[in-house]
Design the sequence.
């Protein structure tokens, strides 16, 4: 084994852990001081989008909607950079949608307040509280179920290198990535909804795929270098797999970033709320695979006193039966 070619990830583990801890602290602080916004798919409520031209006072529009509906309303103005199309978006909080009569009254009041804006309703989303709770429960169940299945799979697949430790450390890396995606939504003011669940499940798939590649390399190197220190085997395996992980996730990040740029230019908020956390999550997945899961696995093994990897090689059974040839 050529030691000079090995990157010592385990030796620098506390630097990586400090970086992750700093990210977690920043995310928690934003979650505390900047309210976490749940999308209407989870909370219930309504979202009304009006196309317009000219000028519209978003605060005045929000006040009108609040007076008519008697519910908190968050107004927002958006504009497509490519087409120049303008939209007034009213996010209406509550446990139900908007009654059609109230919706008609609201549209009439807005047109009366801004007669030169040519306001027209272009999109309406209504979600009852019951369905919002149901969507949230199913989303959380999907995340927990996928995590449990990953643990079971890794536990069984990598018994030769202590599958339980490999599975638990892989789960820690996945939780790290899901938190990064969550904090990305909080910091950038993206609502937590079905897009968050889709991104989290996608990142779990990408991250665990990279982690399994590294564990598979550890398993093979454990056979080749039986008797070496667990730290050396892990560092060698991560070094050998690092280029593949970086290039794979870099391709994902670049493609998703381009999607985000196009969505931002055309003011497509639903795509933006998926593409941005997906791009950042792909970076986190690569980072946690290389810098978190491997060093954590080594720490687990050392804690158990297993500093040396010893794998018994199975002897190949020789065929003692005489071979018969027929001509």
Sequence:
């Amino acid at each position: 084994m050529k030691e000079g070619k090995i990157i010592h990830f385990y030796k620098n583990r506390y630097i990586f852990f400090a970086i992750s801890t700093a990210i977690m602290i920043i995310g928690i602080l934003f979650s505390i001081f900047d309210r976490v916004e749940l999308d209407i798919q989870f909370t219930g409520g309504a979202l009304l989008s009006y196309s317009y031209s000219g000028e519209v006072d978003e605060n005045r529009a929000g006040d009108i909607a609040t007076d008519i509906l008697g519910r908190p309303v968050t107004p927002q103005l958006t504009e497509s950079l490519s087409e120049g199309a303008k939209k007034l978006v009213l996010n209406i909080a509550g446990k139900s949608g908007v009654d059609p009569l109230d919706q008609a009254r609201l549209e009439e009041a807005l047109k009366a307040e801004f007669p030169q804006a040519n306001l027209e309703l272009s999109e309406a989303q209504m979600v009852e509280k019951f369905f919002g709770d149901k969507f949230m429960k199913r989303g959380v169940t999907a995340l927990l179920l996928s995590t449990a299945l990953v643990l079971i799979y890794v536990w069984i697949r990598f018994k030769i290198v202590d599958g339980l430790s490999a599975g638990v450390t892989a789960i820690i890396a996945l939780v790290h990535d899901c938190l990064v995606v969550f904090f990305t939504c909080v910091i950038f003011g993206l609502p937590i909804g079905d897009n968050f669940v889709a991104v989290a499940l996608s990142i779990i798939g990408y991250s665990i795929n990279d982690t399994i590649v590294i564990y598979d390399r550890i398993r093979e190197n454990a056979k080749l270098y039986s008797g070496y220190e667990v730290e050396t085997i892990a560092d060698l395996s991560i070094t050998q797999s690092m280029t593949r992980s970086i290039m794979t996730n870099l391709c994902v990040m670049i493609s998703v970033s381009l999607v985000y740029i196009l969505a931002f230019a055309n003011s497509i908020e639903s795509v933006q709320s998926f593409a941005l956390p997906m791009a950042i999550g792909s970076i986190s997945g690569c980072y946690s695979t290389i810098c978190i899961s491997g060093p954590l696995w080594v720490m687990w093994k050392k804690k158990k006193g297993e500093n040396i990897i010893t794998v018994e090689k199975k002897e190949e059974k020789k065929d003692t039966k005489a071979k018969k040839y027929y001509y």
Remarks:
- The chain is about 65% helix and 10% strand.
